[in-house]
User: Fold these one by one.
Assistant:
Number 1:
Amino acid sequence: MPNEYPKRNNEESKLQALFAGWLDSQGILFNASMAGVNLGIGTAVTRHRMGAKAGFPDIMIFEARGGYHGLALELKAMGGDDKNRKQRIWQEFLQARGYKSLIMPTNLELLEGLKWLQDEVEKYLQGSRK
């Protein structure tokens, strides 16, 4: 059985840790997916049985704004895969069900990526549909 949970890019892990810290500091209700962390085939099988789905967004923000139920964010490290089919499918599913779903660009350095994420969250929390 192939491992459908590829090893997470270390830069993406750093970005997610910085972003999670910022979200906490803002008092924003969120949860992070750990499906991208590779802990071996046994754990991948267990995660799958427990309901973890390939392509699920890295961060889910549980704050309804601007007609959306919440905000789903897929983080990307510089040079990451921006054409992941399963992530795009999740994005479509979530948007069809009333969630705003964003996949960040893959051309941003670590701190640029953090700034992009912060700006998108702030726009979302202000109720913008852009």
Number 2:
Amino acid sequence: MINRSVLGFSGESPFSNASQTEPREKTLARDAQVSPSHQLPQVDRTKVDPKILEAAEGMEEMFIDYMMRVMRQTVPKNEMDLESPATEIYRSMMDSENSKKAAHAGGIGLSDQIIAYLQGRSYHLPQGHAAPMKEKP
């Protein structure tokens, strides 16, 4: 017979600190503290250049569409389903439209990250006013 406590199957959670007398540490990801450098950016979309907003939402739309396409490919094919080339085209078009609507309705936060990145890098300057280049040492 295998000794379960040797393998770590003592019946307690592997994340519990039963051997310590101190209070239990927060071990779940949702309980972890977020460092200030890893917080999501707060973007005021009313003050963003419309071209940057359009580009960011377009990029998020493409990402969501690609994610939906790859997720559909993971579903195994079955002889009993009523799939045809026409239904595959319809689903692809429906996924693209749903991706577009999701991206323009707030999306998953990718467009906010892109906007914050572009604004932080001064890509929103008018044409002909390039940001100064850093000299190489």
Number 3:
Amino acid sequence: MKKKMSKTGVLISFEGIDGSGKSTQAQLLDKHLRLAGYDVLFLREPGGTPVSEAVREILLSRRNDGMSARAELLLFLAARAELVEKTITPALDSGKVVITDRFADSTFAYQIYGRGLPERNVRQANSFAASGLKPDLTFLVDVDVLTAHKRLKRKRDRMEAAARAFHERVRKGFLKLAEKDARRIVTLNGHKSAQQLWQEVRTHSEALLERRKVRKSY
């Protein structure tokens, strides 16, 4: 029997409501670590594999505005299950730094706090879908809903177009998650400039890589 490799890479996730600036910071970290010589894999959720990208289209299309909360949850988890098994786990086993724009905390914030689904059921289902995988470090870029919505220049997708009250619940959910897991989740003030936020992201990320002794690829 082939022996399973132990996890040698690290998983860093970025969270926050749409328009918070999380994607910008994730991209900055991706570029910085590549230039520094690390083997980096950058992903987004839902997405990252052909199956997961197809599920993403279903989830975000405005044609599906009437989707039920349970169906929405299961689709997000299906996309995550495929991504974890086919992409993230092999990357971590090979020593890569995996950066993902959203992961399980988004499911907890959006489906538990936003949609009101039972926490126990959501967490159990996510644990199964993600094979128990959790990020080593998570950045929560927090900003008020009104500011976040003003930043969205493009046409809003199905999730972004939900009522403001929904996004307020999601934001509060993220903050509650960060309070409960302050050792993993670093909360950043999304009203700061992108450069100020980047300095904080860089400091925490480099400290993690040094602590975990992640090797560079060159």
Number 4:
Amino acid sequence: MYESGLPELELRRECDPVVYYDRVTNLCRSHVADPNFADADFVMHAKRATDATMTTIVDEANFCSRHEVYSIFSNNHWMR
């Protein structure tokens, strides 16, 4: 049985790293003035239904302070 971590998303979009990039970026923006917020790590693992093990898609520490950007037309070095 498959259990969704983001029930509002269709299954295919739930594995889209851009969805999570947007969420982490929004988290960073919402805490920019909070002195108690240190940073956020962005880690994402995924697998196909036929795969036995998970694959690391993103594993970036201190994502907020790095101010990473997403580019639709070029390589995103923070994404594997």
